[in-house]
Amino acid sequence: MAQVPKSVQNLIEAFERLPGIGPKTAQRLTFYLLHAPKEEAAALAKASLEMKEKTVLCSTCFNIGEEDPCNICADGSRDKSIIMVVENPLDVLALEKANYKGLYHVLHGVISPLENIGPDEIHIRQLLPRLKEESVKEIILATNPTMEGEATAMYIQRLIQSLGVKVTRIARGLPVGSDLEYADETTLARALEGRKEY
Hints:
This protein is of the alpha/beta class. The chain has helices at residues 6-16, 23-35, 38-54, 89-97, 127-133, 147-160, 185-193; strands at 56-57, 64-65, 79-86, 102-106, 138-141, 166-169. Helices cover 40% and strands 13% of the residues. Strands 4-3-5-6 form a four-stranded parallel β-sheet. A two-stranded antiparallel sheet has the order 1-2. Helix 6 links the parallel strand 5 (138-141) and strand 6 (166-169). It holds the Pfam family RecR_ZnF. Belongs to the RecR family. It comes from Candidatus Daviesbacteria bacterium RIFCSPLOWO2_01_FULL_39_12.
């Protein structure tokens, strides 16, 4: 088998450590950069370093931003009576596209006993002071509909149920444009449970 230069192998291995990047994709990315203009590789490296240097976690909601508090927490026009609890900052991006106008609380993970991730390894407890200090009337649990996401939502609901704050869960069901015949039983059952008057 032909040996690749050490610097090429190092970059392949660096790409492989990224989530969702397998060996073939890591090789393709590496060889793309090998043949790309040097300026393109430099721009990628610079953007990566700038991201690490200039981003911070918001001390209020734990979303990523360039300032603390983040631009969402600092926005006076947001509805401060609603906090949406999400798993990660990518969820915030998706919900912003859907024109959600409340605040967020980013957990940075879910409870997952198989991976030794308990409530103390993610930002659950930091939500409690916000519920006592701010005029929060509703918490929307928007964790993913996975076993871990459901367990995390249930844990949070139990943790805050005595505080007198309304707790809701985002609706689950069929995505727009999908066919009933391809939906699994759980999705169909939840779509039926969450039906509304037409």
